[in-house]
Amino acid sequence: MTQKNQDRRSFLKTATAAAGATFAVGQTVLAEEAKGANGRPGVGFIGTGGRCGAHINIVNTLKKQGLVEPVAVCDVYGPRLRAASQKTDNAKMYKAHEELLQDPKVDIVCIATPDRHHAPQAIDAVRAGKDVYCEKPLTHWSQFDLAKKLGEETAKHKRIVQVGTQYMADDNYAKVRKMIGEGIIGKPVHVELGYYRRGDWGERMHIPDPNAKPGPDLNWERFLGDAPKVPYSVSRFFQWRLYWDYAGGPATDLLVHMFTPVFCLLGLDFPHRVLGGGGTFQYNREVPDQCNIIADYPDGPSVVMMNTLSNHVPTDTKIRGTDGVIMWKSLGSKDCKGIRIVPFGKDKKELFLPWAGMGSTTRLWANLIDCVKTRKQPYSPISAAVRVQAPLSMAIIGHRENKVTMFDEKTQSVKMV
Ligand SMILES: NC(=O)c1ccc[n+]([C@@H]2O[C@H](COP(=O)([O-])OP(=O)(O)OC[C@H]3O[C@@H](n4cnc5c(N)ncnc54)[C@H](O)[C@@H]3O)[C@@H](O)[C@H]2O)c1
């Protein structure tokens, strides 16, 4: 194995080993001591829309098991804020995330705001000494520098950040990663993965109140954050996933789920060259409804990510090596039962590992709560998410500019050719 390969394969191990002791940050308390009401970690929710509903249900269930306590909620839209507070037994309401972060009862922050708020809010959270569940994607496509900054700040403040790619919640990956490192499929050289769906309902989100207007119950400025300042639009506010200013389409919304487990299995680092194809072929929206990416890594593999929202017929994920293949059915589909490992050669035996937790957001939460105590790295760590974000952001930037994007290892930045 070359030195480069060894470095690449040891990167995640190193990242895992980097979990350390907990330190006080500014005026905050040690995470081990910060245990909200009844000695359990207190959870504060930032962004209480659709996805947060699932998080609140899970945290309420974990509360019954004595593991956590929902203590605070924050949103820029009053009706959702009040509904979330009701669902959490009247958790304290905040209209600004900075205020929630000052609440000493909050130990873990769950961030489920639109994409471009993830990194700024998570950076504020780790600086305030909080541990974080941060929804995917790690950042908006235009904020790769913020993704790196969040990685640095998380390490600096010794925080635990679980990134919300729930397909990472499976113990098999650690076993398979070890097998790949030991050469079970030879040198991994080619990957294919995809996400297919027929319909764009996920992006064409529901408008609960067509007459909603900026005012005391709707803070448009806070919704925009660092996005271009544009006049209020009810569609932009509620259906933000349709617009480039707030979302990146299938790359950052969907392919991130499929790619993250592969990335971690292979212990990849940053890509060398990325090509982003596709377009808006069927639906009336700004972001593409078809997205195809080729991400070439310096010493291989070449990763091909495929997607359309016009046809749901799935593809298997395949990691092809020089001496075998690792594959699974389309993640989330009912016939996706586990990982198949097929080494080539008459004397070699095929292996099948049934999934053990893959896709479970509850498991991601339980793992986070455990890591908050033990200070171990979680299933879906920030070190991986920063690197996963790179090809996704590069593909979108290149697609928008009709260019190929290259990753400059020295400056850790993206350049166009
Ligand atoms: N892991 C998954 O499977 C999964 C599934 C769905 C959504 N998500 C992610 O969760 C995030 C939220 O998606 P959603 O569907 O819940 O969107 P949503 O629009 O339903 O909810 C977002 C909420 O954030 C609020 N908000 C906006 N700006 C804010 C700010 N500055 N401070 C506080 N609150 C603010 C909005 O008012 C809204 O209530 C997205 O990034 C999405 O990618 C992940």
What Rg is obtained from the alpha carbons, in whole angstroms?
21 Å
* Average residue pLDDT: 91
Count of discrete domains: 2
Number of strands: 17
Overall body shape:
globular
CATH fold group of the largest domain: Dihydrodipicolinate Reductase, domain 2
Largest sheet at a glance?
Answer: 11 strands, mixed
The small-molecule ligands in this entry are: nicotinamide-adenine-dinucleotide
Strand content: 15-25%
- CATH class placement of the largest domain: Alpha Beta
Q: Number of helix segments?
A: 12
Q: From the helix content, strand content and strand pairing, which structural class follows? A: alpha/beta
Q: What is the first-to-last residue Cα distance?
A: 31 Å
Order of H and E elements? HEHEHEHEHEHEHEHHHEEEEEEEEHHEE
* CATH architecture title of the largest domain: 2-Layer Sandwich
Helix content: 25-40%
* CATH homologous superfamily assignment of the largest domain: Dihydrodipicolinate Reductase, domain 2
> Low-confidence parts, pLDDT < 50 over ≥5 residues?
1-34
